[in-house]
Every structure is written in structure tokens, then in C-alpha cells.
Amino acid sequence: MKQQNSNRSILLGAAFLMATSAIGPGFLTQTTTFTQSLAASFGFVILVSIIIDIGAQMNIWRIIAVSGKRAQEIANDVLPGLGVFLAFLIVLGGLAFNIGNIGGAGLGTNVLFGISPEMGALLSGILAIGIFLVKEAGRAMDKFTQILGFVMIGLTLYVMFSAKPPIGEAITRTFIPETVDFLAIVTLVGGTVGGYITFAGGHRLLDAGLKGKENLAEVTKSSITAIGVASIMRIFLFLAAFGIVAQGLQIDPSNPPASVFQLAAGNIGYKMFGVVMWAAAITSVVGAAYTSVSFIKTFSPVLAKYEKAIIVGFIVISTAIFVMIGRPVTILILVGALNGLILPVSLGVMLIAAHKTKVVGDYKHPIWMTVFGGIIVVVMAYMGGYTLINQIPQLFS
Asked: Burial level of 238, CB count in 10 A (0-12/13-18/19+)?
């Protein structure tokens, strides 16, 4: 019974690590920005992204669990050197995201306590470092992300009800959209399962020793739970923003999510935004640092030995860069879109590995999962390419 409870705790911790890694400052900014431009039709974007997220997440977590290897090791088994290339993409994206995460933490503390964003970012960075310096860092990380995950969802739910969104219209346009925006889909998928995010929970399960065919049912359930938590937060935030848009109120483009919270619930809502922004940012700092370093620690025994020190260094560098260059809204949307471009590569590699006995032994990956994953690779590659050529340049025009 004790072992069963321990496994349940690990699985829930992995799910919340992935979900809260996804729910960062970029997540909040992207959701409110696209709701402002697409209104009720953004519900369709969320629906499509959830379907893609589940397909990507289930495939990747199962293959990691059954192989007992991290993604970069699997990629190297598929093609020597591919794991190094994948790790480079993941770490670069993770660092870019973490600069935004640190900035979001600074913004949250600025709203709550009136201190400068730079000082708030510095203090938040120190707190994140502290989590990795405690003896049971993995367990501390699990509890930290779970508690703050529930806090974010609860506060956003309150703001959603305060905004009084037209639910009927939102449901209708979720299935019959007036417009379809590829950039929005690629950005949402990239911000939920792109780059390092989809590997956060899978690598956490390996570090906790939960792997093998005997645990696949629980691993699959945990992967879907992770997407469920992130999606619930996305839906609540979308409805809150849509309520404001439907009332004809103007969302401040310099800080879209703060504007939504304040317009919906006044000064109390604004303070709630500070809590949600800080919680979203700090949990994403933890997730990005942990997962990015998990992609390079297998390349050398020295890196594995000093894993905690490298994680601390990752957070320090992210904080220093933020203090120097800041966190523009456009960059958060761009990074999400670029992370979406990484997904076809990482998922494609994992699907090939799923059918190599060198990687998975005698395990037979379900054909329907392979087909589902293959469709996602093609669709994301097409939408990502279209976005890269036609839409991303418009962000800077």
C-alpha cells in the first residue's frame, strides 16, 4: 500500500510538473492575446490543440517509460548524434522560455508588493534555486508545483465567473469557428507540449524509478492528466478573456492577462493576477531548468554528478539575461511558436524509436497511437512551416 501511494504521488507530481511547466507567462499572454483577436473562435484553436497535445504526450511518455531512457538517449539510438541535436534545440528553447518565466515572476511580485520587476525576478530566482538545494529536491518540486497549480486554477475560475462570458457562443464557435488561425494553433501546441515541456513529466518519472511495461497504464493516465490540468487552466482563462471582449472592454496590449483580471474583478482581480502570474512563472522556472538539464546530464558522468549545480547555473543565467534585456510580449508568442516547430522533430524521432527493438525490446507500440502521432507530425510540420513563412514575420512588421 505504501509503494502504491508512493507511485500515485510520483505520477501526480509528474503530471503537475508538465502542466505547470506549460502554464507560464507565455501561456497567459498567448491565451489572452489570441482571445482578443479571435474572440469565441479561439475555442476551436483550444480544441484542436488539446487533441494534438494528447496524441503527442501519450506517445512520448509511453516510449520513454517502456525504454527506460531519456529522449536524447532514444534519439541517439535512432541515429547517432541526433540526441545531441535534439538536446541543443530543447536547451536553447528552454533557456529562451526561462527568461520569460523569470520576467513573469518579477512582474507578479511587482503587482503584489510594488517592488521592481528586476528585484522580484531576483528573489524568485533565489527561491527556485532553493528548491533544488534541499535534500529531497524531487519531492519538493512535486509538492511545490501541485500546490501552486491548484492555486492558479482556483483564482482563474473566480475571475472567469466575474467576467460573465457568453458560454453558449463560446461552445458554438469551438465547433463551428468563424476563423482558423494556424499561428494560434502552432503557438498553443508549442506552449503546451513543444520543446522541453512534453518531456518534463516523462523524465521526472524516470528519475523517480517509475518505468517499464508494467507501469504503462499508469504512465498513460498521468500523461493525460497533465494535459487535462493545463487545458482546464487554458479554458478558464479563455472564457475570462472572452467575457471581457464580449463586453466591448479594451484589453491593454502591453499586459493582456493583467488587464483581463483587473477588468473582470477590479483591484482584487489585479492582485489575483499577481498571484497567478507569479505562480505560473516560478513553477515554469523550476520545470524548464530541471528538464533542460535532464537533456544534457547523460552525455557525461561529470554532468550527471553536478546536475543540481548546473540547474542552479541555468536559473542564474536566465535571471541575469532577463535583468539585462526584459520580456516583450512578442517574444513570448514567438518562442511558443518556435517550440511548436520542434515538436514534429521530437515526436517523429520518438515514433521511429517505438518500433526499434534496440530501444523498446519486445514492446509493441499500438498501431493507432503511431498513426495518431504520425498525423500530428505531418499536421504540425505543415502548420509550423506555413506559420514560419507567412505569419511569424508579421509579428515584427
From this structure: buried
